[in-house]
């Protein structure tokens, strides 16, 4: 129970990789607070399941792109639970299309959720982390940030921004005993990937050295490691979890 005395705040925790991260931290005894935007039913089921199994969990409805509401929700969480020891910035959206045809609204939606959302959450948790001289932030980026992806200029830009945010923020707060790192997952089996046609999925697998898609819990285990004391000398890094794709 490495996180038995820790409070972990995970954005976008109701589905996909976020859901796996919530379960992973709960299994290690953490008090798990997680957000959702539209997946109310899934969030309620996850919260109830964790509580029924003796875990401490609470779901918050939140659009992380909303600066004011994000600050308010995290302030509420800090007041109720004392401190957020670990922040996992996982909330993300896609709205793909060729840049020449992409509407401004599609660009703004992805950047505001994936990148500004992380800014909002980091800004909200840092005062208490700095005052306690303790904390961990893990940003969920993507291999698209490193390799690029056709029809995903908005998504790739947002995820590349997270890597820049990670390295810069780490330099700002590492002297306060706050570790900031990122994870760049490759093709992971989630509901989002499930919408991709089989022929495209086979094309994805052809790019992966180990010959298979990743599982969400394989990303969650890396998040656990980076948040733990086992990663005490890792600052400002991006860990690639892609099966050898790039």
UniProtKB/TrEMBL annotation:
<dbReference type="Pfam" id="PF13561">
    <property type="entry name" value="adh_short_C2"/>
</dbReference>
<protein>
    <recommendedName>
        <fullName>3-oxoacyl-[acyl-carrier-protein] reductase</fullName>
        <ecNumber>1.1.1.100</ecNumber>
    </recommendedName>
</protein>
<keyword id="KW-0444">Lipid biosynthesis</keyword>
<feature type="domain" description="Ketoreductase">
    <location>
        <begin position="6"/>
        <end position="186"/>
    </location>
</feature>
<keyword id="KW-0275">Fatty acid biosynthesis</keyword>
<keyword id="KW-0443">Lipid metabolism</keyword>
<feature type="active site" description="Proton acceptor">
    <location>
        <position position="155"/>
    </location>
</feature>
<comment type="similarity">
    <text>Belongs to the short-chain dehydrogenases/reductases (SDR) family.</text>
</comment>
<dbReference type="InterPro" id="IPR057326">
    <property type="entry name" value="KR_dom"/>
</dbReference>
<comment type="pathway">
    <text>Lipid metabolism; fatty acid biosynthesis.</text>
</comment>
<dbReference type="InterPro" id="IPR020904">
    <property type="entry name" value="Sc_DH/Rdtase_CS"/>
</dbReference>
<dbReference type="GO" id="GO:0051287">
    <property type="term" value="F:NAD binding"/>
</dbReference>
<dbReference type="InterPro" id="IPR002347">
    <property type="entry name" value="SDR_fam"/>
</dbReference>
<dbReference type="GO" id="GO:0006633">
    <property type="term" value="P:fatty acid biosynthetic process"/>
</dbReference>
<keyword id="KW-0521">NADP</keyword>
<feature type="binding site">
    <location>
        <begin position="155"/>
        <end position="159"/>
    </location>
    <ligand>
        <name>NADP(+)</name>
    </ligand>
</feature>
<feature type="binding site">
    <location>
        <begin position="12"/>
        <end position="15"/>
    </location>
    <ligand>
        <name>NADP(+)</name>
    </ligand>
</feature>
<dbReference type="InterPro" id="IPR036291">
    <property type="entry name" value="NAD(P)-bd_dom_sf"/>
</dbReference>
<feature type="binding site">
    <location>
        <position position="90"/>
    </location>
    <ligand>
        <name>NADP(+)</name>
    </ligand>
</feature>
<comment type="subunit">
    <text>Homotetramer.</text>
</comment>
<comment type="function">
    <text>Catalyzes the NADPH-dependent reduction of beta-ketoacyl-ACP substrates to beta-hydroxyacyl-ACP products, the first reductive step in the elongation cycle of fatty acid biosynthesis.</text>
</comment>
<dbReference type="InterPro" id="IPR011284">
    <property type="entry name" value="3oxo_ACP_reduc"/>
</dbReference>
<feature type="binding site">
    <location>
        <position position="188"/>
    </location>
    <ligand>
        <name>NADP(+)</name>
    </ligand>
</feature>
<dbReference type="InterPro" id="IPR050259">
    <property type="entry name" value="SDR"/>
</dbReference>
<keyword id="KW-0560">Oxidoreductase</keyword>
<dbReference type="GO" id="GO:0004316">
    <property type="term" value="F:3-oxoacyl-[acyl-carrier-protein] reductase (NADPH) activity"/>
</dbReference>
<keyword id="KW-0276">Fatty acid metabolism</keyword>
